[in-house]
Amino acid sequence: MLRTYHNQTSTIMCSYLPDFRSFNRTKGGLIQLNHGQPQPLQYVVNAAFLASLFSDYLEAADTPGWYCGPHFYSIEVLRSFARTQMEYILGKNPLKMSYVVGHGKHYPKRVHHRGASIPKKKGVHPGCKGGWTWRDTKKPNPHIIVGAMVAGPDRHDGFKDVRRNRNYTEPTLAGNAGLVAALVALSGEGHGVDKNTMFSAVPPMFPSPPPPPAPWKP
């Protein structure tokens, strides 16, 4: 059963590599896991986390890499994929835009988020439609929602900092959970996300080599 899941996961990891062209990439290098549809970053950060996690698993199993058909790839290929995708999100992209609010000098100022976009006023509690006035304004959000990752760019690396267009500026729980997981997985030294050595309990994928033979005697 473990080998079955191992093989399935290996195939998914192969699909992330540019050699196999399972997914397109923007000119800036962002993988299009949702095939060019809006809000791509929530998929990218979770893929970066899984790639880092699988590389930790292989390292814990004393396996230097994995096969994609007849081709062998080292675990560093997975970590490089995860790093480059996260670097794109944090600002290494054609627009030099950080898609994480509050990170760097250039990040979205009109995030599609009710709490961030409605100014605080004592005694005033806008109803469901009462927030539309601030949703539609072109002014920057009065509150900076630090650490929130927005939906992201389009398939041409373009981005519109427009609060009303959630396809660019909406943060999601799924996206930000993946963001935190990916950043943790890529931080620090040694085992990456496997700091508690949880993979040490995983049985080896391949049998241990036999012991050396006894000294030969005539």
CATH topology: Glycosyltransferase
Task: Give Rg in angstroms.
Answer: 22 Å
Count of beta strands? 2
Annotated CATH architecture: Alpha/alpha barrel
Numbering strands along the chain, what is their spatial order in the largest sheet?
Answer: 1-2
Shape: elongated
Q: Which residues sit in consecutive blocks of at least 5 with pLDDT less than 50?
A: none
Enzyme class: hydrolase
Active site: 112
GO molecular function, one term: cellulase activity
Pfam families: Glyco_hydro_9
Structure description:
The protein is mostly helical. It has helices spanning 2-15, 41-60, 75-89, 114-117, 132-135, 166-169, 173-186, and strands at residues 65-68, 71-74. It is elongated. 34% of the residues lie in helices and 4% in strands. The chain contains 7 helices and 2 strands; from the N terminus they run ααββααααα. The longest helix is centred in the first third of the chain and has 20 residues, at 41-60. The chain has a two-stranded antiparallel ribbon. β1 (65-68) and β2 (71-74) form a beta hairpin. It has one domain (1-199): Glycosyltransferase. α2 (41-60) packs antiparallel against α3.
Compose a concise summary of this entry.
This protein is mainly alpha-helical and 218 residues long.
Chain-wise SSE layout:
Blueprint: H1 2-15, H2 41-60, E1 65-68, E2 71-74, H3 75-89, H4 114-117, H5 132-135, H6 166-169, H7 173-186
Antiparallel strand pairs: 1-2
Helix pairs in contact: 2-3, 2-7, 3-7
